[in-house]
Amino acid sequence: MFKPKNLFRALPAFLLLAVCATVTYAQSPKKPEDNRFTKVVLAQGVEEPMQFQILKDGRVIYAERKGKIKLYDPKTNKITVIAEFAVSTKYVNKKGEVSEGEDGMQGIILDPDYETNHWIYVYYAPAGDVAKNTLERYTWLGKDILRNTKKTVLDVPTQREECCHVGGGMLFDKDKNLYLSTGDNTFSRASDGFTPLDERPGMSPEDSQKSSGNTNDLRGKILRIHPEANGTYTIPQGNLFAPGTPQTKPEIYTMGNRNPWRLTIDSKTGWLYWGEVGPDGSKDDFDKRGPQSYDEFNQAKKPGNYGWPYFVGDNKAYRKYDFATHQSGDFFDALKPENHSPNNTGMIALPPATPAFIWYAKGLSDKFPLMETGGNSAVGGPIFRAADFKGAKRPFPDYYEGKWLITDWVRGWVNVVEIGEDGTYKSMERFLPELRLRGPIDMKFGPDGDLYVLEYGNGYFKNNPEAELIRIEFNGGNRKPQVQARADKSAGALPLKVALSSAGTKDFDDDDVLTYQWTVTKAGKPFKTFKEQNPSVTFTTSGVYKATLTVTDLKGAKNSTSLTIKAGNEPPVVAVTVTQGNSSFFFPGKTIAYKINVSDKEDGRLSNKRIPASLVSVSANYLSEGYNMTAIAQKQQGVDATARFAAGMALIAKSDCKSCHAVKDKVLGPSFIAVAQKYKNNPSAVATLSNKIKTGGSGIWGHAEMPAHPALTNNELGSIVRYIMSLGTPQKTQKSMPVTGTYVTAVPKGENDNGSYILRAAYTDKGTATAAALTTENLLVLRGSLLSPSQANDAKDMDYNRDSTIVVVKKPGAYLEFNKIDLTDIRNVELKLLPRGRGTDPPATVEIRQGSADGKVVGSFTGSFVGLNSLKVPISGADGKQDLYLVFAGTQVRLNGVKFNIE
């Protein structure tokens, strides 16, 4: 294709204007909307799944680590076992101690000509006294694998004294060459999170120079062979070492790998890509050891050495280190690496090291910020090429052409990497930001164009209930309506009139005309049907009813959702009010007076004692996490006697903690209960463990290295630790408070004093003869009196910084608005400012108004803000609880907090 600039050179100057008016350039494909993708769960209850392949008819064959090969059939939605291998998963060290490891059934793949030869390959660690991993070929005709057809293709000798790193990924290229990834088979947790180079006698299981850095060993490599019909293999041309090269293995395509995962080949360029799991260190130590840990995503345009165990990331070099004397030597040279280990059986001089394509540590990466922070385990994923899916039902759109979809086992995101035509990294973006996978361990496109993901679940070496096989479908045409169904009442006494609403229902394809149908049933039997968008229905008989809204678009695509209505019993009404003090904020050490009101149509009222006070549950709990964490806590489990720990539970649920820890059982790290018991008499446990989580490290519970979590705030760290510590002793049931009384809002010792107090009241009624009992609870949240700009409910003409902790006034009339602020007893509103230094800025004005931006002024200040850290604006004439506006005239104000003071 010619380039426009060459055309311009060939034309006379007077024609250039005409050409410029007519030449057009191809537009980049538009990014598809997230709502065009649908997650479909295919199979649940998969047990330690490892690798899978999709057949042309949609069946999925996958390997489980404990030795089973299983088949999922979409026609029946059933999983069947087609083979079970005796596998080795244990390690026995020199002391005779037995531990669980990563070995077992690791990989499975079908031959490229499976439709005619029916060959299937498996890679696993066979049970027995011989330490090895083996690649075997069998015949599979669609039911059980025929074990008597076994052909041993390749053996990889290993050691079984110490865990870990097996690799096991397999892939065929267009020339029917088989790629097999192998791990370095090295115990690295005795290396303080750095590279394992232990050359002491008898310590070869802790020296990766015997494998990854050894040109004469098959471990820590990506191998490339060509399987032959008789069960043997030949060596393709172009591997790293030509056959016959002394002290080398000709099968090696890449070396210097630690634990390469999930190979993929770009079908257009032929380049190889994979994920590479790094070590565990969270800090650099260039004085003695070298760089911290980095996981990698790698690209091989040709055979090469990828550096491990001498380099990591973009060729960050480790130092030679003597594990006997603890003395450090020189940094290794990436251009001329050498392997002088006594455990090396290969060449001393190694090929130059190739830097990683993408690399990221435990902390935030400046170069690749979308990788997030915390524990990491690079997996890899497929590169999309539309030419691979001609005639497919649901191929991904052209926007993803040539892009690499990658995932991380711990962090659970999927990122899309754009690669230049010359193979250079260009950019990265998040794929479906709301999607969070749970232990994604293999990911590839299926024949219909869908993206399949095998999720191992959270936690090593166990059957995780959340493990599943899913696929993500793209809908490039007409989409189903998104249906919302609501009712103004979910329960009530007879006769119960309920207004049903379809508000919020929408269709993303604008030309569609929607039709609505409400179907109301009782015990599965029809009760009423409506063809209106928002009908009303009256129930005269007690019972539980289901109202289902079905919405159909003009092209026949339909979608439904349901809600439940309980008729025959009016829910209780519970109110929590502050009778003395401020109803928006708490002030440490101050007393508030409160009152609970309960009324129930059938049971009576608390005020006339028909409802006994003893049946009303009342509690107050302090959340050091503050107001923003309250919503998380409530979503997690409701606010009750354990509310103090709910936010910690929520943070653990959305972090990488479950990858290495469980509540009761030891995984890679200790159980939470064991941690709580170890530190239960330690008065500084919260501070000690918070720092441990933040900075990472090892040594307390053995060699296992805990990754750093630098992005967690001190409040979040404290929440996690306090929840863990709560597991050490049984929690006492909190005694209910009186329904009317006073409460001193004391802050627990050592906790943040700007959290939230939550007053909760709940009542369960008696039900009726024909309807079950109903519970109503109500909450009153008193938050800390210091608000961040990020907590404003609205803003006008204000510039926020990246994390919304600072705002700057852009022009006069700018404001911040906070919803429903009670100014009772508030003497002044204190503005926390960032000083502007010295200067002669003209005076500025700030007004505090109630109700609206031009509402009643209850406080104001006019003057210079230069050099001020804070400014207290007196409050007078305020009218209770209203929306509050801070209105600014003048542009020199920089604000990072608003505090409400009673003194």
Q: What would CATH call the homologous superfamily of the domain at 575-783?
A: Cytochrome c-like domain
Shape: globular
In whole angstroms, the N-to-C terminal distance is: 76 Å
The residue fraction in helices comes out at: under 10%
Strand count, sense and barrel status of the largest sheet are: 6 strands, mixed
Rg is: 33 Å
Low-confidence stretches: 1-26, 627-642
Please count the helical segments.
Answer: 8
Q: Specify the oligomeric state.
A: single chain
Average residue-wise pLDDT: 88
Q: Do you know the CATH architecture of the domain at 575-783? A: Orthogonal Bundle
Structural class: mainly beta
- The counted number of beta strands is 58
Q: β content, as a range?
A: 35-45%
- Quick one: CATH class of the domain at 575-783? Mainly Alpha
CATH topology of the domain at 575-783: Cytochrome Bc1 Complex, Chain D, domain 2
Structural notes for this entry:
The chain has 903 residues and is mostly beta strands. Among the domains are: 185-368, no CATH class; 486-567, Immunoglobulin-like (Sandwich), CATH 2.60.40.10; 575-783, Cytochrome Bc1 Complex, Chain D, domain 2, CATH 1.10.760; 786-901, Jelly Rolls (Sandwich). Helices cover 8% and strands 37% of the residues. The chain is built from eight helices and 58 strands. The strands form 15 sheets. Strands 12, 13, 14, 15, 16 and 20 form a six-stranded mixed beta sheet that branches. Helix 4 packs across helix 5 (643-653), helix 5 crosses helix 8 and helix 7 packs across helix 8. The longest helix is centred in the C-terminal third of the chain and has 13 residues, at 714-726. Mean pLDDT is 88; it is low at 1-26 and 627-642. Residues 190-217 are annotated as: Disordered. Pfam families: Cytochrom_C, GSDH, PKD_4. Residues 1-26 form the signal peptide. Residues 643-728 form the Cytochrome c domain.
